[in-house]
Amino acid sequence: MTLQDLQKKYFNRIDRLDLDLIIAHVLKKNREFILTNPKQHLGFFQLIKIKSLISRRIKHEPLAYLTGHKEFYGLDFQVNRHTLIPRPETELLVENVLRLLGQNRQQKNSKHNQTNVSTYVSNSILIDIGTGSGNIIMATAKNLKKSKIQYLAIDQSRQALKIARKNAHQHQVDQKIKFLQGDLLKPFIKKYSSQIENLSSIIIAANLPYLSQEILQSASVDVKKFEPESALLSPQKGLGHYEKLFNQIQKIHLNNPKLPITVLIEYSPEQKQDLQEMIKKILPESQSDFQKDLSGLWRIAQINL
Ligand SMILES: C[S@@+](CC[C@H](N)C(=O)[O-])C[C@H]1O[C@@H](n2cnc3c(N)ncnc32)[C@H](O)[C@@H]1O
Asked: What is the distance in A from the centroid of ligand 1 to the CA of 129?
C-alpha cells in the first residue's frame, strides 16, 4: 500500500492533518515528505502501527498522546497521559514571565512601581507551580540564558514530574531547574524556609487546574476522556487551587513583608471578576493587573506584593 492509498482509505474518517502527522510520526519524516511522496510504499509493520494509531485517534485520543510530543513556544515537549497537553494560550504566560525577567533591568516597572525589575536579576527564584510537562519553566529558562535566577518546578503528580525531568534533560536545562513534588507552594516553604529571607524576590508562574465541573463537562471528548482530570478540574467554580495558593502566598508575605513577590497566573475568561475579588480579599496589600489574550479573552493576571 502507498501513502496515497492510505490517505484515500481514511480521508473521510480522520482529519487530514492528523492523518498526515500520524504517518509522518511512524515514518520518522516531516509532513512535507508525506505531502510530496504520495507513491511512497508502506512496509507491513509501518502499516500496522499507522492503523493502530488511526483507530486510537478515531476514538478521540489526542494526537499529542499518540505521537508523545507537543510543540510549545517553539520547543518540543514530551507528553503522556499524566501531563496536560500544553496549550497555545499558555505561551502568553511565558511571554509575561520573560517580559518581567528580561526587560530593561534599569527601568522601573511603571505599572507596578513597587517592584524594581532589577531586583529579579540576582538571587531571585522563579517557581512554576503545576509544571506538568515543564513547558512554562523550560521555555523561560531556554530564553533567559544569562539570568542568574534560580528555577524551581513543582507538581503534585510524580508521573508528570518524570516527564518534566526528561524534557529538562532534552532541553539541557536539567542542571538549572530543581523539581519538587507536593501541594502548591508547600514543598518550597519546607525546603527553602531558611533561604527565603535571603532572596531578593520570588516570581511565581502558575497554570493550575481551573475548570469548573460544568465547563469540563462541556469540553471535547478528547479532553474529558484522555487528559488527566487532576490537571484540569478545580472546586469552587474552578478557583479552588488559586484560593489555596493565594493563602500560602499571603503567609509568606506576612512573614517576609519586604520581599517582593510577583505572581503570574492563567485562568478562564469568565473567572476574572471572582478572581479579582478573591485577590482583594486574600492579598489585600497586592496590586493586580489583568490581561486579555490574542482572541480578546481575559487570560492572565499579574499580582504584585
Ligand atoms: C493545567 S495543568 C498545567 C500543566 C503545565 N504547566 C501547562 O501549562 O501545560 C495543571 C498542573 O498542576 C498540577 N497540580 C494539580 N494540583 C496541584 C497541586 N495541588 N499542587 C501542585 N500541582 C498541582 C497537575 O498535576 C498539572 O500538572
From this structure: 7
